[in-house]
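Schema walk-through. Below, the input block comes first and the output block second. Nothing else is stored per chain. Lengths vary across the set, and this one has 126 residues.
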Amino acid sequence: MIRLREFYREEHIRLEPDRLTHLCREMGAFGADDLLCRAVEELALRLERCERLWRAGDCTELRRCARSTIGIAEQIGMVSLARVARDVVDCADRRDPAALGATVARLARIGERSLSAVWDSPGLPG
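--- output ---
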């Protein structure tokens, strides 16, 4: 009998609260809160789109979607999410389907945790 074992490694995410503080100073609390809400909503849409594009096998659009995710994540201090999105771009460039599938799955996990963590962060604007 073959026994399969599923491993789950909890990855820590990294947020950079100084980015949010800078946005608050630059835009005011209301403006920063508005930007943060729009960015989080857009990231949720892009993460879902990245998964859909991967399933469809559209590496070109997947690369483009992951690339745009990097900029938004960096703008609001989601360091881990930006790093994993960059890894997706690299895997898409290499046309490595196994690595791309694993990295897109990781993007979904890190993305979900990052989106949740930003709302739980004590230093949020507003």
